[in-house]
């Protein structure tokens, strides 16, 4: 009765018994996979009925959009940009290698010299060129019209950045630390305005919209373009709004007034 | 007398044996005490299947916008973050990192995701 040269530890014992009963284990695993989605659906249904607010995820019944009134947008005001940076954990730098999800631009009528200020970001197109060109399917449009990057599948090729007519996307060049729990960001992936999807899913407004209202400008209106009774739809129906680069027929989710 | 010595020898061998088992070449993962309470599933099941659960739910969340599932990475972190570093992967004894070091599996999640719980405003 000599000591066993390689005494099985507790974990090793578990593995051994697991191997022994492999078929049983595999069967249980398959059962688990089959059951799991059903369980989750029931949980979601229960959660929805408990809180009274339904949260079945993104629905194609709504299309989130923004209406930006450039006549109300104040030149020199940067509140929407600052709010976006704070909400999403961006550095706020404006170098070519810094991520900028929203930026303020000044446009000038050459003949009269009249200048206007407006925020420019991802236009959340209905026919997004960035989605067309993505080789891995990482660039995608959610059912409710929000265009996002799935960073789990993004390989950082940056075709989408070249395809975007609005220069809306940024590439993350350096390792990131201290990201926001709601906004994962990582080196080697492309990112852009998410319309604060984590807030929208909770029924809140995007950070730039809140910041603009707080500054008293009310230049950005957020809402459902598919609902004819929403404020944004009513305003689009009654005032002449524009899409930037209308000629590309991208059917943008972000519309502009007064340009 | 001879059988007694033999018996003593056996006992000593048992002690040495036990000593060897605890000082294995590979150190066991040290898991710090965190918030405690029950996990969303049995720990043995979670040890083997947490990655599958997370993978299923990440697609539901990101692509489907469903944020009510039971297996979100954020809720993992809320419970398992260390009391000293407030993180699940900042030091080698933190929850995720300690086991991944033991299993020699690279932990990619936290290159993009925050490894700290959300600060409640």
Topology summary:
The complex is a heterodimer of chains A (259) and B (121).
Chain A: H1 10-20, H2 22-51, E1 64-69, H3 79-88, E2 102-108, E3 115-121, H4 129-133, E4 139-141, E5 147-149, H5 159-163, E6 170-171, E7 190-191, H6 197-200, H7 207-214, E8 220-224, H8 231-238, E9 241-242, E10 254-257
Parallel strand pairs in A: 1-10
Antiparallel strand pairs in A: 1-8, 2-3, 4-5, 6-7, 9-10
Chain B: H1 2-22, H2 43-64, H3 73-80, H4 95-103, H5 109-112
Offer a concise description of the structure.
The complex is a heterodimer of chains A (259) and B (121). Chain A has 259 residues and is α+β, with helices and mostly antiparallel strands.
Please indicate the percent range of residues of chain A in DSSP E strands (runs of 2 or more). Answer: 15-25%
Roughly what percent helix of chain A?
Answer: 25-40%
Mean pLDDT of chain A: 84
Total domains of chain A: 2
C-alpha Rg of chain A, in Å? 24 Å
| Largest sheet features of chain A | 4 strands, mixed
Largest interface: A-B, 45 and 34 residues
Shape summary of chain A? globular
Tell how many strands the DSSP assignment of chain B holds.
Answer: 0
Using DSSP, what is the number of strands of chain A? 10
Beta content of chain B comes to under 5%
Mean pLDDT of chain B: 82
Radius of gyration based on Cα positions of chain B: 21 Å
Low-confidence residue ranges of chain B: 7-11, 13-21
Note the gap between the termini of chain B.
Answer: 75 Å
Order of helices and strands of chain B: HHHHH
Class of secondary structure makeup of chain B = mainly alpha
Largest sheet geometry of chain B = none
Task: Tell me about this structure.
The complex is a heterodimer of chains A (259) and B (121). Chain A has two domains: 37 residues; 194 residues, Alpha-Beta Plaits. In chain A, helix 3 packs across helix 7. In chain A, a hairpin with a 5-residue loop joins strand 4 and strand 5. A four-stranded mixed sheet of chain A has the order 8-1-10-9. Chain A has a two-stranded antiparallel ribbon with strand order 2-3. Chain A has a two-stranded antiparallel ribbon with strand order 4-5. The N terminus of chain A is likely disordered. Chain A is of the alpha+beta class and 259 residues long. With 121 residues, chain B is mainly alpha-helical. In chain B, 53% of the residues lie in helices and 0% in strands. At the A-B interface, helix 2 of A face helix 1 and helix 2 of B.
